[in-house]
Amino acid sequence: MKDVEGKVAFITGGASGVGFGMAQAFASAGMKVMIADIRQDHIDQAMDHFSNTNLDVRSIKVDITDRKAMAEAADEVEAAFGKVHLLCNNAGVNLFNDIVEATYDDYDWIMGVNLGGVINGVVSFLPKLRKHGEGGHICNTGSMASFISGPGAGIYTAAKFGVRGLSEALRYALGPHDIGVSLVCPGLVKSHIYDSDAIRPKDLAQTGGSPSKEFMTRLAQVHDAGMEPLEIGEKILKGIRNNDEFIFPHPEFREELSEIFDEVLSYLPDEPTPPARMEVEIGRRKRKAEAKAAIKNH
Ligand code: NAI
After folding, report:
1. In sequence order, what E strands does the chain have?
2. Using a 6 Å cutoff on CB, does residue 63 contact ligand 1?
3. Has residue 140 been placed in a domain?
4. How many domains does one find in the chain?
């Protein structure tokens, strides 16, 4: 989506952190923006910021795990702005417990918001992105945890790997329909994600254990060292304009990614592939290359 001026963006989690950075960058580039968030205090702070500008930013309170509310939000954006071109499935939460102790509630909450919320965004908004014929874009916020795992944040990592798989599949499927898809993979960003517990639903409250107060204080300090929301918002806008498959705002992960891919390759068996099987693979790769070539940058 090279030309963004006058186009309409819907950003989940748009009232804080990465989403707020996107809202600022998009609105400054002349887009009409609807920020959607579950936290009224975050919405109030964000709207307070925009009330001092002449940028066209509006807000809606919505829980992305609520499918009916998401469908209503999609209708509301259309009613407010006429059309919607850019869907940013960005809202996310993290849980800083040990996965060994995790309960079903821990899984349902983290998977429900981080992966389920993206699915709900796609199902609610895709028909609206397609119907005006002006092209569109879906930008999903993954994480470096879409590629890199470690001893912590296991459920979050599972969800973010899922967002990566979904985004790549959608990119192939939607390219021919003039809808681009990007996956944003942030590293550390100055945000409030450490405060996710404040919005944990009461009906998913059974947890396998909470981190110590000291850990949470340290976590807030760690996030304070992160990238500024506006900086990441501008990088995301650039990636959307280029229809980049991946938007990596943070350079500091190059070495680790390279190690991961080398390690994965080292596990492949070093033996010849039977010709009949190789033929199937060659056919599949050809179809993939054709699908890739059909992805336009509109
Ligand atoms: P944040 O907490 O500052 O902003 C997220 C916003 O999403 C909040 O305003 C929150 O109220 C909202 N939200 C949470 N659950 C929601 C729900 N069910 N429905 C609607 N809104 C909801 O956090 P941040 O960091 O800006 O998070 C944005 C995205 O960036 C997330 O997907 C997160 O996983 C991702 N990310 C963040 C990183 C960081 O270092 N901050 C690193 C990598 C990825």
Report:
1. 8-12, 32-37, 57-61, 86-89, 136-141, 179-184, 246-247
2. yes
3. yes
4. 1
Give me ligand 1 centre to Cα 102, in Å: 21
- Whole-angstrom distance, CA of residue 205 vs CA of residue 212: 17
Is 282 contained in some domain? Answer: no
Position 297 in a domain: no
pLDDT in tens, 19-74: 999 999 999 999 999 999 999 999 999 999 999 999 999 999 999 999 999 999 99
Question: Per-residue pLDDT tens for 260-271?
Answer: 999 999 999 999
For position 157, which CATH number holds? Answer: 3.40.50.720
Alpha-carbon span 64 to 201, nearest angstrom: 12
Residue bearing the CA closest to ligand 1, atom 12: 13
For the entire predicted model, the pTM comes to: 0.97
Q: Among this protein's residues, is 156 annotated catalytic?
A: yes
Instruction: Classify residue 39: in a domain, yes or no.
Output: yes
Which residues constitute the domain of residue 198?
8-255
| 201-204 contacts at long range (C-beta below 8 A, 24 or more positions apart) | 201/65, 201/109, 204/105, 204/108, 204/109, 204/112
